[in-house]
Amino acid sequence: xxxxxxxxxxxxxxxxxxxxxxxxxxxxxxxxxxxxxxxxxxxxxxxxxxxxxxxxxxxxxxxxxxxxxxxxxxxxxxxxxxxxxxxxxxxxxxxxxxxxxxxxxxxxxxxxxxxxxxxxxxxxxxxxxxxxxxxxxxxxxxxxxxxxxxxxxxxxxxxxxxxxxxxxxxxxxxxxxxxxxxxxxxxxxxxxxxxxxxxxxxxxxxxxxxxxxxxxxxxxxxxxxxxxxxxxxxxxxxxxxxxxxxxxxxxxxxxxxxxxxxxxxxxxxxxxxxxxxxxxxxxxxxxxxxxxxxxxxxxxxxxxxxxxxxxxxxxxxxxxxxxxxxxxxxxxxxxxxxxxxxxxxxxxxxxxxxxxxxxxx
Length: 361
What we know:
single chain; Immunoglobulin-like; 1 helix
């Protein structure tokens, strides 16, 4: 009897530990501000072996050398039609250097980096490039992702230049490939200088980079192998939680597993007129919702005069005035395509609350 009880407890623990999953609702939307506090040395950060029920306490281990803001915007905010070079992007981040942008794609498989643009140009092996556009995207956060999951991804981009040394006048194509192997290998409790997170997943990413050189001696579009270089495999870690600002900590290691840098993150939610809103003041059920079904909105905790639904680009798709004191509201989703949306509740034209929800087809 005792053995059966013990077995049941262990099975329940296993189910509980495996239940947490990073999903679509945890990924950023336009206007959501993340702040990275970066320790560019990371000497005091120790990486523990894989396992469940871990307790990571890094409250006093960081020496912050840099602060970086990440606030993705809608694609339409990019000037000079640069967005047309990244047609599948859903968000863009304005970097600290004016004219530098990072293009992102978010879908039901994860958050990806589509590429980078710089008005001044990037120096890549002695050549100036204005755009680094991935033909196969770089994976940042896979979804859905839970303990024990493994995802592999291959990201590539290339550029062509005219050689003036070994093959004067010939075109040389350089292809950069990043092989990514991501595994959610640990789960536990995390403490950073910003607070305690009782349930997080740690994702280990093994990264191998290759550079391939090909030459087209007669400039007729036929490229032949010249040489290639493969760098040593390195490792990076992300600690993820459910909810806004799903990335709460990260670390980058070298090929010898020495920590090169580490960061912890905070979130100010959606910035703008919404900077002081409470994202948990209302509840939406069911969430996700199947297209065509009603969503039920519980307004008990807010004083609402109107509600609106927006897509990721910030376009208003639905608006409704409601009677003061309304506690329950039902909205039909038949006109909403599959994807991520956020619902805003207004009180006298001021944003009172914001919540995300997903429509599935």
